[in-house]
Specification:
alpha/beta, Rossmann fold, 5-stranded parallel sheet, binds uridine-5'-diphosphate-xylopyranose, binds adenosine-5'-diphosphate
């Protein structure tokens, strides 16, 4: 079957860039990205320099395809009805209440999405899970679609997205692999082939891997868990380096030169952030516990515990440097995004570290080249409003430009590895470098 119209539900960090690239590479397919969030859709249709997602290269892709065969809309039902293929790229945060709270994925957005498809669809659809989901979610989606759907037949595929933020467009252009999980039935395999045909427009066939649905769902969780595990491994060793005088960057280089280990993802940091790692590992831990695999669950849980430990350690290092009290000390936080080249601050270590410094009495000056002032204050309110603290805006300012920063303040904490910070003159202040920008140690302290 040749696909003429695709609909993607969810215009976020996954749906937006992924669909923009599909539209670019498949000019004969009409791709409509829909979202309930009207503000987001307006921004996707607006100027290229204020798209809701910042990714190097994204604006160019959107410029080439938008209005030609790429559309952003709030007319969810209409886009579902006319498409033969529907991607679900909605958010799957960690549950905050009910069974599995704090661990399991909240599937309410996915379920609402499936119900909507079932309600609207009059013709057969291939429904594709793009969001990272717990194993066997496809089964749930199918149940909803078959129970609530009318005459239409639904084929569910799992096609997890492996893009990393900041390099999303490159990752989508040259994916290490495209993973497609489908039912082993004849109609399931036909659906798999239909999706393969789309990717073949730009991905070599050797890189397209097909599996059953459950393997595909679990591969995504497992990949993220193993990537995060490498970071926690190197971060745990950074603590030992600081005690012994070994240098974590030298260690990382030495370890990474073993071709069986490899050099990537071995950079010590203030801890990993982002919307995926923590959520996916918690999900994996929950899954293992559900199946009675407590030792396995504990093994993976430790990856998160070390990540939390690293964030605490970094903040405590700054507090200890000033004798345990930061009252009246002005500390600049450079970087709010969870990594460079993105405007995303979800689960960013900066949020946690800022909170800890603030609670120790510090006056904070925050700057990030891409995360907006509104987002930063939203992140802060989210954490602190509930605890009813003082008017935090009196002790926190968010700068519009790095030039506003007076580098003779008490200390600077570098929390995101932005290129723009590399050229700053830090000779007048104490620097706590969480991202290895200045020197070989993650906790290098500059000259006071
Ligand atoms: C991750 C996966 O890489 C991607 O395949 C998946 O689809 C989504 O989750 P992302 O979270 O966007 O992508 O970014 P990634 O580059 O993996 O970085 C995650 C975090 O790890 C960041 O906070 C980053 O700074 C940190 N990190 C990364 C380190 O601390 N050290 C490293 O060596 C690498
Ligand atoms: P991700 O990083 O996985 O892309 P985001 O939170 O950036 O996650 O994006 C998910 C998007 O999905 C949000 O913009 C949200 O408004 C949208 N969304 C969630 N549920 C629905 C739904 N039922 N119909 C349409 N859009 C939805």
């Amino acid at each position: 079957m040749k696909i003429k119209k695709i609909c993607c539900i969810g215009a976020g960090y996954v749906g937006g860039p992924t669909m923009a690239v599909i539209a670019l590479k498949c000019p004969d397919i009409k791709v409509t990205v829909v979202d309930l969030n009207e503000e987001r859709i307006v921004a996707w249709n607006g100027p290229l320099d204020t798209l809701p997602v910042y990714e190097p290269g994204l604006a160019e892709v959107v410029a080439a395809a938008r209005g030609r065969n790429l559309f952003f809309s709030i007319e969810v039902d209409r886009a579902i009805e006319e498409a033969e293929m529907i991607f679900m790229a909605v958010n799957t945060p960690t549950k905050t209440e009910g069974e599995g709270a704090g661990m399991a994925a909240d599937l309410s957005y996915v379920e609402a999405c499936a119900k909507n498809i079932a309600k609207v669809a009059k013709t057969n659809k291939i429904v594709i899970e793009k969001s990272t989901l717990p194993v066997r979610t496809a089964e749930k989606i199918k149940e909803i679609l078959d129970r609530e759907g009318k005459e239409a037949h639904f084929e569910i595929l799992s096609n997890p997205e492996f893009l990393a933020e900041g390099t999303a467009i490159q990752d989508l252009f040259k994916s290490d692999r495209v993973l497609i999980g489908g039912d082993e039935t004849e109609s399931g395999q036909k659906a798999v082939q239909t999706l393969i045909d789309i990717y073949l427009n730009w991905i070599p066939k050797e890189q397209i891997l097909t599996t059953n649905v459950w393997s595909s769902e679990l591969s995504k969780l497992a990949s993220n868990a193993m990537l995060a595990q490498r970071i926690s491994s190197i971060n745990s060793l950074s603590a030992l380096c600081e005690k012994t005088g070994a240098d974590i960057d030298e260690l990382s280089k030495a370890i990474g030169m073993d071709h069986r280990i490899g050099p990537k993802f071995l950079k010590a940091s203030v801890g990993f952030g982002g919307s995926c790692f923590q959520k996916d590992i918690l999900n994996l831990v929950y899954l293992c516990r559900y199946y009675g695999l407590d030792e396995v669950a504990e093994y993976w849980h430790q990856v998160i515990k070390i990540n939390d430990y690293q964030k605490v350690r970094f903040a405590q290092k700054i507090i200890d440097h000033f004798g345990g009290d930061l009252t009246g000390k002005i500390i600049a936080i450079l970087g709010w995004a969870f990594k460079a080249n993105t405007n995303d601050s979800r689960e960013s270590p900066a949020i946690y570290i800022a909170e800890k410094l603030f609670k120790a009495g510090a006056i904070l000056e925050i700057f990030d080249p891409m995360v907006s002032k509104e987002s930063i204050f939203k992140d802060i309110d989210f954490y602190w409003e509930a605890s009813g603290t003082e008017d935090l805006k009196l002790r926190i300012s968010v700068l519009d430009s790095v030039n506003e920063l007076d580098l003779s303040i008490d200390a600077v904490a570098i929390l995101t590895e932005w290129e723009a910070f590399k050229s700053l003159d830090f000779s007048k202040t104490i620097v706590f470098d969480g991202r290895g920008i200045l020197s070989s140690s993650i906790y290098s302290i500059g000259k006071g």
